[in-house]
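Structure tokens please, single chain.
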Amino acid sequence: MGSKEIILTKEGYEKLEQEIHTLKVVTRKEVAQRIKEARAQGDLSENAEYDFAKDEQKDMEARILEIEHLLLNATIIDDAHIDKNVVALGRTVKLYDYDFDEEVTYYLVGSVEADISASKISNESPLGKALIGNKKGSDIEFMSPAGLIKYKILDVT
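Here you go.
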């Protein structure tokens, strides 16, 4: 994990706090119990359940460390002092897609929270970069792997 700025919405920060709490309080106990049960079966050299549980434990501990790093180094978006009509992190943007003649809505977040299946796009994505700083009514265009994309900003909330 490099020195790249970690930007989170308040919602994203709280979601990570909940995840780490669950990992530490619930999942750790469950994995420890599976390891204990697998150990009780005897010979560990050929025990697939034991190997699986140990791998799961390693992955879980790595995720805990990752979340701790994110939470410790995160900047939480505070949009209280930003013009509400300007596209910025933490804003929902309704767009008109000229190519497909349809409206789409995205929530602009930092790269840690980006999830296109939930319509959350990163400020570092080509679309995110093109949107930042623009206002309702603006036409934007940017290059994507598929070519030139054009949108009109219909609303910023």
